[in-house]
Design brief:
The protein has about 500 residues and is α+β, with helices and mostly antiparallel strands. About 35% of the residues lie in helices and about 20% in strands. The strands form seven sheets. It has a seven-stranded mixed β-sheet.
């Protein structure tokens, strides 16, 4: 009998493969980075073939570490960076262009043209999304319009579109072209009510329907397909779980009840609030998205606050400014000063996402004096993650009418205990970290395991969730309010930096 569930977690900066047992414990894993490609200002790309190669490598390395063979694995789940857009030849499997990453802003002109034509309201009503460069639909349109020969290939039926989940499933299964509602809901092309591609949206963006994958449940007992008999997962393992990374973290945190919320600290920062089977349209700059769909049951929806730069801000300190050598250094450096000395860093490097949706914004560091040193800037970078989360939480409370009294957190940055204390102080609520912080991978495993019968129901998954540590607010309300007011002033300085051409 198979003893494990495997989860492929293909993120913005790296790919990992994790084996979980029935208690949701990590048995073994491997992780490898892939290149970040910046062809020009505002453009961010990945090499799809490198992502697939890293996936093969981490699967093989994990199986070797655990001394596990394919027959020991009951099923495979996939979770992925969302919105990142790929087109490839359906016969050769070769990408026609690099993957355009969710952070990329090259589609700003397309989005402005759609806004000027009056489509913003229809897009928000049908898809739950604002008209922004973040999403996959405009990225497809850009490739069709700008990569030579691509539109002709698409209209001839020779090309396939997918976000990273679809690309990996296609390669793992030898050609199954599928996605799930959580990823499809991030394209600006799917109707939230029908969970199908919307003809009006396809017409508005000029995208041929034949390039799009089939939308299947996030946890699918009928399977998307089975792994090939070649490669590291020889033995026809069912691939039957698929969730966009933030929805996967929601499932991994077992936020199955209406009103439960989580925040993931990764490359970006993403807070999701479960709204149940009701579609709640935001009035305060949040997204309406699909949280998950298990088997043939009705989909569960969520409100989401998306922040582009969280862990990526720390990466920028390391790679661009050379202020640190490793992310782990930030904890001690930030703790070495009492505060940020009046300095604020607003990392609007690709514009501002929730709740502003300002593609014209760019990053700023304000409040600089000769007193400010490296430690203050590092602390300001960590504070920027927490302040952006505060803005999203305020919007979420305004939309839902429910004040959050605690926040479940996960993701790589949650190992920084000082950051988590900062977050509790800036929010004024309890912050809770689970024992298994890799909840994104765990959510993908749960989706696959439910489909394969490895786990029986949601109550069984809730039983696996355990608290590792909590943080209580230690700052007083006046200090919290003053710091937040300064942050708001700093954010205003980022507006209108990019002018219309």
């Amino acid at each position: 009998m198979a003893k494990y569930i495997g989860a492929i977690d293909s993120g913005t900066t790296s790919t990992r493969f994790i084996l979980f047992d029935q208690g949701g414990n990590i048995i073994a894993y491997d992780q490898r980075e892939h290149a970040q490609i910046f062809p020009q200002s505002g453009w961010v790309e990945h090499d799809p073939l490198e992502i697939w190669e890293r996936t093969r490598q981490v699967i093989g390395a994990t199986l070797a570490k655990a001394q596990v063979v394919a027959s020991d694995i009951a099923a495979i789940g996939i979770t992925n960076q969302r919105e990142t857009t790929l087109l490839w030849d359906r016969r050769s499997g070769r990408p026609v262009y690099n993957a355009i990453v969710w952070q990329d802003t090259r589609t700003d002109r397309i989005c402005r043209q759609l806004a000027d034509a009056g489509y913003a309201d229809a897009i928000a009503r049908k898809t739950g999304l604002p008209l922004a460069t973040y999403f996959a639909g405009p990225k497809i349109r850009w490739m069709l319009d700008n990569v030579p020969g691509v539109r002709q290939q698409a209209e001839a039926g020779d090309l396939l579109f997918g976000t990273v989940d679809t690309w990996l499933i296609w390669n793992l299964t030898g050609g199954k072209h599928v996605t799930d509602p959580t990823n499809a809901s991030r394209t600006m092309l799917m109707d939230l009510e029908t969970l199908d591609w919307d003809d009006e949206m396809l017409d508005v963006l000029g995208i041929p329907r034949q390039i799009l994958p089939e939308i299947r449940p996030s946890s699918d007992p009928d399977f998307y397909g089975r792994t090939l008999n070649s490669g590291p997962l020889r033995g026809a393992v069912p691939v039957c779980g698929n969730l966009g990374d933030q929805q996967a973290a929601t499932v991994g945190q077992t936020c199955f009840a209406v009103g439960e919320a989580k925040n993931t600290y990764g490359t970006g920062c993403f807070m999701l609030l479960n709204t149940g089977e009701e579609i709640v349209h935001s009035r305060n700059g949040l997204l309406t998205t699909v949280a998950y769909q298990f088997d043939a049951r009705p989909p569960v929806y969520a409100l989401e606050g998306s922040i582009a730069m969280a862990g990526a801000t720390v990466q920028w300190l390391r790679d661009n400014l050379k202020l640190i050598e490793t992310a782990a250094e930030t904890e001690a450096l930030a703790q070495s000063v009492d505060d940020s000395g009046g300095c604020y860093l607003v990392p609007a490097f690709s514009g501002l996402f929730a709740p502003y949706w300002r593609s014209d914004a760019r990053g700023v560091i304000v409040g600089l004096t000769r007193y400010i040193n490296r430690n203050h800037i590092v602390r300001a970078a960590l504070e920027s993650i927490c302040y952006q989360t505060r803005e999203v939480l305020d919007a979420m409370e305004a939309d839902s009418g429910v004040p959050l009294r605690s926040l479940k957190v996960d993701g790589g940055a949650t190992v920084n205990n000082f950051l988590m204390q900062l977050q509790a102080d800036i929010l004024g609520v309890e912050v809770i970290r689970p024992k298994i912080a890799e909840t994104t991978s765990l959510g993908a495993a749960y989706a696959a395991g439910l489909a394969a019968g490895f786990w029986q129901d949601l109550d069984g998954l809730r039983g696996n969730w355990q608290v590792d540590r909590t943080w209580q607010p230690q700052s007083d309300e006046s200090a919290r309010a003053a710091g937040y007011a300064g942050w708001k002033r700093a954010v205003e300085r980022t507006f209108d930096w990019i002018e219309d051409e």
